[in-house]
Write a structure and sequence with these properties.
Length: about 180
């Protein structure tokens, strides 16, 4: 889940508040999305970036199905998810993270393409399809954001050998203060 948050937070770092630049792409690579975001002005407009500081995120897994998993493992996984349902984690977003996001935060996997990537006006909507050999994974994300909060719903469905594998989750994150150096 920490990796999911590390992917989600940078994606939202480029998001604006309820006005300003927008990006709307279809059938695009990660590189094309990155270029469009940079050209849109989202990255250079100081009033559209998330605020640097200490952020707290809560990830709630709503549904997880992994066909073929032995029942005892599936039951244990459900118990662990229930046990950690109210857990949150904290991470620091530095001013450098906001000014110059890491080059791979739109995804380094060349097997993935964005069916659509829409961001602007406080909303984000993404559909990404990753194809490798005889399997496909489709991931959808949609939500809202401000410079100090975001709320995101995510779902993932697998086909091929992963046939029937699916996961749904919800992420809420908010800026809670300044970074202390002991946050990550």
């Amino acid at each position: 889940m920490k990796q999911l948050i590390r992917v989600t937070v940078p994606a939202l770092m480029i998001a604006g508040c309820n006005k300003g630049p927008e990006v709307d792409l279809h059938n695009a690579s990660a590189n094309q999305v990155s270029q469009a975001v940079q050209q849109s002005g989202v990255m250079t407009s100081s009033d559209t970036l998330v605020q640097p500081g200490l952020w707290e995120s809560k990830v709630t897994v709503l549904d997880m199905v992994m066909p073929g998993m032995p029942p005892q493992y599936a039951d244990r996984m459900k118990e662990e998810l229930a046990k950690h349902r109210n857990d949150s984690n904290r991470h620091c977003i530095t001013p450098e993270d906001v000014k110059q996001p890491k080059s791979d935060f739109f995804g380094a996997d060349k097997s993935c393409r964005y069916e659509h990537f829409t961001m602007g006006g406080g909303k984000i909507d993404i559909a990404m399809v990753c194809k490798q050999e005889n399997m496909t994974q489709t991931t959808n994300m949609s939500g809202t954001y401000t410079p100090t909060t975001y709320s995101m719903d995510m779902s993932s469905i697998g086909t091929g050998p992963q046939q029937g594998m699916r996961m749904k989750m919800h992420v809420d994150s908010k800026r809670i203060g300044e970074c202390t150096g002991k946050d990550d």
